[in-house]
Amino acid sequence: MSPRPAPDRTRLRAAARRPARLTPEEAEERALLLRLCSLLLQYPDAELATARPVLTTTVEALAPSPSAEHLAAFTAWFTDQEPQALERHYVETFDLRRRSSLYLTYYLHGDTRRRGMALLALAQRYRASGWESAGGELPDHLPVVLEFAALAGHRTGEAPLRQHRRGLELIQHALTDADSPYRHVLSALLALLPPPTEADLAAVAELAAQGPPQEDVGLDPYGAGEFAPPGTFVPPHPAPPTLMPPLSPPEGPR
Predict the structure, then answer these.
(1) DSSP 8-state class, residue 92
(2) CA 208 to chain centre
(3) Which mean pLDDT values do the consecutive 10-residue runs of the chain (254 residues) have?
(4) For residue 6, which phi and psi values (nearest 5 degrees)?
(5) Residue 134 and residue 241: Cα distance in Å, rounded?
(6) SS3 for 67-106, per residue?
(7) Of 83, 159, 236, 247, which is the most exposed, with the fewest CB atoms less than 10 Å away?
């Protein structure tokens, strides 16, 4: 009897990380979770602050899941804050700290020429799917990436999130270290993605210690903080939130 061939571990790992097929109901719930993450990670201007009761009601009506629990923890804090305090916390968290910047290609390519190419590829992916982002943000801004994921579907739409899994892990670690309630939104998102591999975790640890690749030419940085000397960067004014249709309050918990 011939010996059984050894399993192809590369294929096994790929199969474990491949998106599973979803029922229409699961796909709808997943899209809502992604859309909520997108909204909650946008700059908390007056419009978003006014929508807090609807957002909270929508989160309360979600089907039970780890992601829903994390979003409930965040909205409990989000709803209780004064608008100006929300704005200050957002700027301090995402605009003044590179380690928790929401521009995903920065973690993979740093301030190098390759980042410009990655931004172009991401914009082309959006156009190929028939989608154009509104709001004036770069295509790698996490709320924009999440909106695309919610609209384009599980396999195609979430591909950029899976590609930038390591950057998302680093953002979540930075938010946890800073004790920012926004850590709950990142935890809700990461709970939807395949679990990180050992290689992912090792790369995140190296990135946290050394920072992204650096180059003297290319795009200006998108934040100061741990990866750069203080005072070397003036953050841009936050762009207005990505335009999205208003959420309709659900009829009640399911």
Answers:
(1) I
(2) 17
(3) 49 48 88 97 96 97 97 97 96 90 91 88 92 83 96 90 93 94 98 89 82 55 35 35 46 45
(4) -65, 145
(5) 9
(6) HHHHHHHHHHHHHHCCHHHHHHHHHHHHHCCHHHCCEHHH
(7) 236
Residue 20, helix vs strand vs coil: coil
Residue type, 38: S
DSSP code at position 99: G
pLDDT of residue 178: 94
- What's the pTM value of the predicted model, to 2 decimals? 0.77
Please check whether residue 111 is in contact with residue 214, taking contact to mean a CB–CB distance below 8 angstroms.
yes
Q: How many CA atoms lie within 13 A of 144 on its CB side?
A: 22
Amino acid 196: pLDDT:
84
Q: Phi and psi dihedrals of 103, rounded to 5?
A: -95, 105
Per the listing, tokens 């700027």 go with 91
Distance in angstroms (rounded) separating the CA atoms of residues 83 and 211: 33
